[in-house]
Amino acid sequence: MNSGTVVAVSRDTTHRFSKINQDTIRLLAGLGVEGDAHLGVTVQHLSRIAQDPTRPNLRQVHLIHAELFDELRPAGYTIAPGDLGENVTTRGIDLLALPVGTRLRLGPEAVVEVTGLRNPCLQIDRFRDGLLKRVVGRDEHGDIVRRCGIMSVVVRGGEVRPDDTVAVELPAAPHRPLETV
Fold it and tell me: Residue 1: pLDDT band by 50, 70, 90 thresholds?
């Protein structure tokens, strides 16, 4: 779990569910993805703006593991990078197992800090009917399990491209498990 690879990078200037794949994205420290609708110091997701527009933006960069797409394919869901609204699609790292505060070095310069889990909403079923039940479920103890990626903030800016290395830097123990942000 020490390193992986960037499969794709995506952004969109408007608030749509899916994002458009790019050759490169630029991360801006404390803001997010340059040119993305979710760029900002304060919350940018429309539902969160309606609740409290002054809250800090803990969802600047959304990452999803490509292995999720592999798991969904046999159930009839063909999902491509960017389809679920992520900015960075990775392979080779169990993103959902990372603790809060983990830093991910994306390529030679950029660093993001993991803030929590994405909480998928009903929009995911509008994208593909029945998909929400595939990415949100319950474990053997009855606890909710969310598998639709993680959220992060940009600690150090820089360009990120497909095939860049993703290096994992765990925070000091004790580790806090991810919760929704």
Answer: low
Q: Produce one character per residue of 68-91: b if its CB has 16 or more CB atoms within 10 Å, e if not.
A: bbeebeeeebebebbbbbbbbbbe
Query: What b/e readout covers 44-59, taking b as 16+ CB neighbours within 10 angstroms?
Result: bbeebeeeeeeeebeb
Cβ 114 vs Cβ 177: under 8 Å: no
CATH code, 99: 2.40.33.20
Q: Please state the rounded mean pLDDT for residues 83-93.
A: 98
> Do residues 24 and 160 touch, judged by C-beta distance below 8 A?
yes
Domain that holds residue 89: 3-169
Residue 50 lies in a domain: yes
Most distant CA pair in the chain, distance? 42
Give the Cα separation of 36 and 170 in Å (integer).
Answer: 27
Asked, for residue 179, whether it belongs to a domain, the answer is no
In a domain, 176, yes or no: no
Number of domains making up the chain: 1
pTM here is 0.96
Pairing mode of beta strands 88-91, 61-65: parallel
SS (H, E, C) 59-111: CCEEEEEHHHHHHHHHHCCCCCCCCCCCCEEEECCCHHHCCCCCEEEECCCEE
Partnered with residue 89 across adjacent β-strands are 8, 64
Asked if residue 61 is part of any domain, the answer here is yes
